[in-house]
Amino acid sequence: MKLAKRIDRIQPSATLAMTSKAAELRAQGKDVLNMSVGEPDFNTPQNIINAAIDAMNNGHTRYTPGGGTKDLKEAIQKKLQRDNNIHYELNEIIVSSGGKHSLYNACQALFEAGDEVIIFTPYWVSFPDFVSVTGAIPVFVKTDAENQYQPIFEDLEAKITKNTKGIIINSPSNPTGGVWSDDAIRKTVEIAQSHSLWVFSDECYEQLTYDKPFQSVASLDLQNKNIITFQSCSKTYAMTGWRIGYIGGDARLVSAVAKLQGQSTSCPNSIAQYAAIEALTGDQSCVQKMRKIFLHRRNVILEKLNNIPNIVCDQPNGAFYVFPDFSYYMGSKTPNGKTISNANDLCSYILDLTGVVSVSGESFGAPGYIRFSYATSDEIINDSMNLVKNAIETLNF
Length: 397
Ligand SMILES: Cc1ncc(COP(=O)(O)O)c(C=O)c1O
Hints:
The protein is of the alpha/beta class. The protein has 14 helices and 14 strands. The protein binds pyridoxal-5'-phosphate (PLP). Pyridoxal-5'-phosphate binds next to helix 5.
């Protein structure tokens, strides 16, 4: 069978692959400590669940407008004003089936063959694929690991060409947990503006910053209409399975995305939209509670990582990932004489020996690094880091 070329331009999601691998091992009866999950381990708060039950009981079980209900758009409008200090008109807001869907659709609406799109390394696994599937080319810009993975601006300037059409910012970042300073964001936006680039700001971890309150990129330059804001209910409200994400930005882009959604998914899930209204406008104390727990876990995992010899892990100021550098161990040998050539080998070795599931930095454009998610209990964090340390100590040169 000859599949369309666009399918060859993309890779399966490495993080979803690790989640399936963990489930497979567990089904085989193995003890698995999953440090690869990209979602909060908390249940969705009860008030949000109740809103969904009420929606079903009240008959809100039918198609909605393709870009989301007016009530949800108004809730998003209020939320963006309240938390992020940005105002969008209702025709500048669209709801999609998760933040991933929002980003995918916006890339489809804006990019095509001949375009180049700037992505910062290490990057979330899906960004290059969102771009490549459109026929555009992802162009990678280096960042500074010692400085929250902020851009290396000389590299950014050097990579912009006449074909560059957009730039994707993701702060707080998956996989690094890095949070850029306002200055770094301003500078990036200024450079983008001087070349008339679209700026996509993926803010799905906006409520998970630990050193200072989050600043939405669009709020730093309210005049710049080329900044598009992407947020999601997934991580903030422990709603990953509900699939609600949204975009705020240029009305022409929003209406293009609406057209695409109308011909692909029809509309986001109606019940989840009612739940999202409660999430965004109801009691927000769950957000603070979860943030506090994640901050504690970040400190726990960093302390454990600091006990593993020869790895480097600067403190990430957001999201729920740590991204230590294991480069020192590349080229080392396992007790069976197998060479650890890259982080994929190291993740597989750790998994086989200890049952700890992690994600190799190779899939994030960061060879030698490993991503651990700390969206799990203190006990699993402690046990898994002890096991990783034991595994590392078996390696020799
Ligand atoms: C950086 C980043 N953006 C967007 C998403 C999309 O999340 P969702 O589609 O659940 O809203 C994720 C999920 O892992 C992410 O890590």
